[in-house]
Amino acid sequence: MKRAFLAAILFLFMALQAPSAEAAGNPARGAALYAEDCSACHAADTDQRGPHHRGLFSRQAGSVPGFDYSDALRGAGFIWSDQLLDAWLADPEALLPGQDMNVSVEDAQDRADLIAYLKTLQP
């Protein structure tokens, strides 16, 4: 029951966020934003304060082996998509209450650019 409720909330949130996730992203600008705003905690290939990002779009949230995720992220039960990542970047706590990333990206174009860059990190 609890999982079904969470799934319904996630679906509704994704539906409301979908237009900003569909904005055309610029991966070069996203790489610059990543270096400036994300690299203090994340890297493409190594776990830092946050988990590595290579292969993000093909894995389940909270599943990098050996990384110490919050209970919220470990139990999220979804695979990262453009829409979920857009919602996460916009407001991680709204998407998954109790998560540990307390940084958000307010600008929709910045989120689209970051997502476009992260897609270049697929294996």
From TrEMBL:
Q: Which PROSITE patterns match?
A: CYTC
The answer to whether keyword DNA damage applies is no
Q: Which residues form the signal peptide?
A: 1-23
Q: Which UniProt keywords apply?
A: Electron transport, Heme, Iron, Metal-binding, Signal, Transport
Domain Cytochrome c, which positions? 25-122
Official protein name in the record: C-type cytochrome
The top of its lineage is: Bacteria, Pseudomonadati, Pseudomonadota, Alphaproteobacteria, Rhodospirillales
